[in-house]
Specification:
The chain has 199 residues and is an alpha+beta fold. The protein has one domain (2-178): Bifunctional nuclease domain. The chain has 6 helices and 7 strands. It has helices spanning 37-48, 57-67, 105-115, 123-129, 138-156, 160-178, and strands at 2-12, 17-24, 30-35, 71-81, 84-92, 98-103, 119-121. The protein has a 7-stranded mixed beta sheet. A hairpin with a 5-residue loop joins strand 5 and strand 6. Helix 5 (138-156) packs antiparallel against helix 6 (160-178). 34% of the residues are buried.
């Protein structure tokens, strides 16, 4: 097993996709995994220590497990098959019994961050899909995550003129990242190839 940490979320504008970036703790390899927009925003907020006004899905899961006396022990990216990453969450109940639960990598990572559980990658997955150069501009990605939340708030209060300005700023930041990002094959979280933008 390779112990990793989540270092950020990046974007791939030509395909309207997001990636979560895992870096091995004792090495220089980086593992990018495509995830959905909602999952990307959730992980970004967890990394920045920000909170939504209402509990998110990972908050709900963490609360239910805690109330049931179940401990999240780890999240593992366990397999890469036909361009799809697979993950498992290891849990332990009150009696000390351990079980492995299948999960999407994005959900497993978010739950691990929320419960402060370790994240790891199976050696064969890391060997087959990791890259050697950092594929993320963290400061810009953090700005994008923050602006997405501000955009949502503006839409909720019908401040559409301000929302349009924020949307344009987000697109500008995403475009600044797009040309510098390259990913290895087999990075999709849910097995679907990224779709090209119609714009």
């Amino acid at each position: 097993m390779v112990s990793v940490e989540v270092v950020g979320i990046s974007v791939c504008p030509p395909y309207q996709g997001y990636v979560v970036i895992l870096k091995e703790k004792e090495g220089e390899r980086w593992l990018p995994i495509f995830i959905g927009a909602a999952e990307a925003q959730s992980i970004s907020f967890l990394l920045q220590g920000l909170e939504y006004a209402r509990p998110m899905t990972y908050d709900l899961f963490a609360s239910i497990l805690n109330e049931a006396g179940v401990e999240v022990q780890s999240a593992t990216v366990s397999n890469l098959k036909e361009n799809t990453f697979y993950a498992e969450v290891k849990i332990k109940n009150r009696s000390g019994e351990e079980k492995l639960i299948d999960a999407r990598p994005s959900d497993a990572i978010a739950l691990a961050l929320r419960t402060q559980a370790p994240i790891q990658v199976v050696d064969s997955v890391m060997d087959g899909a990791a890259v050697s150069n950092e594929p993320v501009n963290r400061s810009v990605v953090e700005q994008i995550a923050y602006l997405h939340q501000k955009l949502k708030e503006c839409v909720e209060v019908e401040a559409y003129e301000e929302a349009a300005k924020i949307r344009d700023h987000i697109r500008s930041l995403e475009n600044s990242l797009g040309d510098s990002i390259s990913f290895p094959p087999g990075s999709e979280d849910e097995g679907e190839a990224p779709k090209k933008s119609k714009d």
